[in-house]
Amino acid sequence: MNQSWAIEASGLVKTYGEHKAVAGVDLRVATGSIFALLGPNGAGKTTTVRLLATLLRPDGGTASIDGFDIVREQREVRRRISLTGQYVALDELQTGEENLRMIGRLGGLSGVQAKRRATELLERFDLVGAAKRNVATYSGGMRRRLDLASGLVGQPSIIFLDEPTTGLDPRSRQTMWRIITDLVGSGVTVFLTTQYLEEADRLADRIAVIDRGHVVADGTAAELKRQVAGQRLDLTLSDALTFDEIVRRLGSRIVLSDTERLMIGIETDGSATQIRRLLDEIDPTGEAVRRFDVHTATLDDVFLALTGRATGSQHVQETANV
Amino acid sequence: MSEIAATHTLTTETTRSTSSIGQAFVMTARGLRLTSRKLDAMITAIVLPIILMLMFVYLFGGAIQTGTDYVTYVVPGVLLLCAGFGASTTAVSVSEDLHGGIIDRFRSLDIGGLPVLTGQVAASVARNIVSTVLVFGVAFLIGFRPDADALGWLEASGILLLFILAMSWFSAAIGLLAKSAEAANGFTFFVMFLPYASSAFVPINTMPSWLQGFAHHQPVTPITEAIRGLLLGTPVGDNAWIALLWCGGIILASLVLCAALYRRRTA
After folding, report:
1. Residues in B touching A85 (Cβ below 8 Å)
2. CA dihedral in degrees (A96, A97, A100, A104; nearest 10)?
3. Is ipTM over 0.85?
C-alpha cells in the first residue's frame, strides 16, 4: 500500500526583497502523524506554515495538502486545514463562546449546530467557566486553548500550530502538550513549529530542522539526537594546571572546553556505568574533577552539530544582506 | 479521544457553503457586538458632537449672523459632523482587524473582503443612527424647531443615512490603506474638519474668497444645504440631487477601492 501524505512540499520558496525567508523547502508528512518543524527565530518556520496554510503565495516550488495544490486548489485546501498562529486570532471584546459560535456560523454551521459545537469545544478545552467572559480577561494559556479550539470548529483534518507553547508557563505548556497528543487520536495530522527540541522530542513522530530557510536535517527525534551525541558530560576541573593537562590528554574527545570556567565536555550515553568509567579514567586520584553535570542535547547543540554555529537571530540578519 | 471521532461525523452534516450574504450577517452581528462594548468610542461619538453643538450655539452663536435662529441653522451641520466623525472610526476598526490575527482566521475560513468590511460598515451605520437620534434629541431641548412635513423628514433622514453609509465605506477603504490603526485614527481628524470649510457652521460668503470655491464644491455643503432645506421646509433647489450624487459616487468609488485594496493587502 502506498503511504498517504497529508502534506507534501517540494522546493518551496518565499522571497522578501533580497531575503529568501524560505529557500527551497522539501517536506513530507504522513497522515495521522505529528510533525515538528524545529528551528530558531527567523529560520523560516512561520513563513513555511503560512505558505502551506495558503495565507502566503509561494514564489517557487509546489506543495499539496491531502493531494490538493496550495495555489490552484486553495479552497479545497482551506476546507481541510486550520492554523493556530503565534498571535491569538480572536476578538478580545467577544466572549469565548461568542468567538466560537461566530466561527462556526462563518464556517457554514447553523445557529443550533454552532452553539452545540461551541459548547463541546469549551468543555473539551476546559473553558466552560470562562465561556461567558470577554477574551480580554483570559490568561495566556486560556487564550491559546481557545485559539486552538476555534481552529477545530470546522473539523479540519490537518492542523497547523505555529509555536503553540512559546511564552506559556510550564503548566500551561504541559496542558497544551496533552491536548496536542490527544488530537492525533482520530487520524488528524498535526504540523507544529517550535524552538524547543524538548517539545519536538515529546510530541513529534518526525522532526525537520530548519535553518536560514533550508531543511538541514530530518528524521525521528532519536535519529536527530544520535547526530549530536544525545548527551554530554560536563566536568568542572580543580585548577588551570589540571585543566591544561586533561585537555592535552583527551585531545579530540573533548567536544567543549571553557578555559575561563575550567570546564570540559565529552560525549556520553548518560548511563551510570559509563559516567563512572569516564570519571575513573579522567580523574583516577579523585582530585582533578570538582563538579560534573550531565547535559541533555538542546536545540543549540543540534544546531551546532548540523550547521557548525550556534542559534541566534543575528546570523539570520547577516544572511539577509548577502 | 472518542469525542473527536464523534465530532468528525458532524462534518458530513455541514454544507460549509455559506453564502457571502450569510457571512455578512454574521460579521454584522460581530461588528454590532464589538461596537456596543467599545464604550469609550461610543461615548466619544455621542458626547463630542453634543459638546460641539452647545459650544456653537451658546459660545459662537451670538456672533454668527445667519438670518435665522442659530440653533436652527447649525443643527444639520452638527449632525453631519457627528455622522462623519462617527463613521470615520470605521477606518480604525478595519485597520485593527487587518493588522490583528483575526484576519488570518477569516481568510482561512475563506471569507472574502466584502463580508468582513460589510460587518464593520453595518456596525458603523447602526452606531451612527443611535448617535444621530441623540444629537437630534439634544437639539430639540435647546430650541431646534424644524418645520418639515413627513416627507421632508423622510428625505432628510434618507440623505443623512446615505451620507453615513458613504463615509463608512470611504473610511473602510482608508482603514485598508493605513499602515496601522494609529495612522487610520489620523484620518478621523481630517473628516472632522471637513464640515468647518462648508456652509455647516457659518455662511460661505463670510469666508475668504480663495476658500469659497472649495467650500461651495465640497460634498458637505450641498448635503448640509439639502438637509437644512428639507428640515426647515425652505427651497432645496439642486442640492438634494447633488447630495445624492456625491453620496452615491463616494460609495461606488469606495467599494471599488476596498475590493482592490483588500485583495492587495491580503495577497
Report:
1. 101, 104
2. -170
3. no
Task: Mention every residue, 6+ apart, whose C-beta is less than 8 A from residue B213.
Answer: none
Record the cell numbers describing residue B256, joined without a space. Answer: 471599488
Buried b (16+ CB within 10 A) or exposed e, A69-104: ebeebeebbbbbbbbbbbebbbbbbbbbbbbbbbbb
d(CA B196, CA B69) in angstroms, rounded, equals 19
Q: What does the radius of gyration of chain B's CA atoms come to, in whole angstroms?
A: 21
With 0-12 CB in 10 A as exposed, 13-18 as middle and 19+ as buried, what is B207? middle
Distance from the Cα of B150 to chain A's closest Cα (Å) equals: 40
Contact A182 B1 (CB under 8 A): yes
Reduced to 3 states, what is the DSSP secondary structure of residue A190?
strand
* Interatomic CA distance for residues A162 and A192, integer angstroms: 6
Within its chain, how far is the Cα of A222 from the centroid? 15
> What averages of pLDDT result for each successive group of 10 residues across chain A (322 residues)?
81 90 92 93 91 92 94 91 86 94 92 94 94 93 92 91 90 90 86 90 92 89 72 88 90 85 87 90 88 79 70 40 34
Query: pTM value?
Result: 0.78
Q: Please list every residue in chain B whose beta carbon sits closer than 8 Å to the beta carbon of residue A89.
A: 100-105
CA of A78: which chain B residue's CA is closest? B108
A contact residues 68-127, partner B, Cβ 8 Å cutoff: 75, 78-79, 81-83, 85, 87-91, 93-94, 98, 102-103, 105-109, 113, 117, 120, 124
